[in-house]
Amino acid sequence: MNEQQKIGALESMLFAHADPVEAARLADALRVEPEEVVRLLKKLQRKLDEEESGMAILYFDPDRWQMATRPYYGEMVKRILDTRRNAPLSPAALEVLSVIAYNQPVSRSFIEQVRGVDSSSIVAKLLEKGLIEEAGRLDLPGKPIAFQVTDSFLRVFGLGSLADLPPLHGEAGDNEPSEAESDPAIDTAEDGEQLEWK
To answer: Containing domain of residue 69, as a range?
Structure first.
């Protein structure tokens, strides 16, 4: 591996790692001495500065390095991240939100039993958007994490509380989250999961 390839490897590792990382760890991954890594990192740092790249190499005492966006572009980076955060919800995400809102607190396996498909990525995105949150662990084998909707969910959908959710199947007057107990579509889920939690 020539010098340019080593620099490219360091650039890749710093980008992928995201957080500050010690030169010794980078050296171990690259199979070179830490002193050589420091020299190559300084060279990469100068290169990015000279090119006025959107990325910069930051140094933190003692001997930690990180790749980060250059502060000059901070406002634009914030705008694109906000756009991603505020992107419209997909039908699948709305479906997961509905399952949680009407039956909370529920585990990921409960959601997947109701929907019939893997929902882990959607749950992760809803957590990132702040529309759902962890609500302790259910009193079931394995103590699965329970999820519930947040105040942000209520604000986004213009609800004062979960009591304002529209009734399921047109049944007026009973729109509490526990309504799922009488919903045959949900009877296949783990018995009492939405009630037994800690």
So the answer is: 3-73
